[in-house]
Amino acid sequence: MIKILIIEDDEITNFITKLSLERLGFKNIKIALNGQEGIDYLQTNEAPDLIILDINMPVFDGWDFLEALNHQNLCQNVPLIITTSSARPQDRLKAIEFDNLIDYLEKPVDFESLNETLKQLETNNL
User: Fold this and answer.
1) Is the pTM of this model over 0.85?
2) Alpha-carbon gap, residue 94 to 34, rounded angstroms
């Protein structure tokens, strides 16, 4: 079963995302409310199979999180999906610089599309 770490500061988005993923059959889901919580989680727990990352967050945003991952050599091969409310082309261009990025989704997230990505990931991990 795929282990998913969601790093997102909006609790309503977290609730909807977790509920939607559970309805799709994904049960092993952890949540961090900002990039620093995400780093702390990764330093003390087994790596997830997937990270779903928001970009715009207080404390430690998604870009800070990605830089910390690279700097600390954490989860370098863990697939990453960015979810963002930003429609800035610069963000999309910056995101594709990360080798483990498998999808870039603008909010609101299309959960059917996300499900297809997750099913492909699950098939490849088996």
Assistant:
1) yes
2) 19
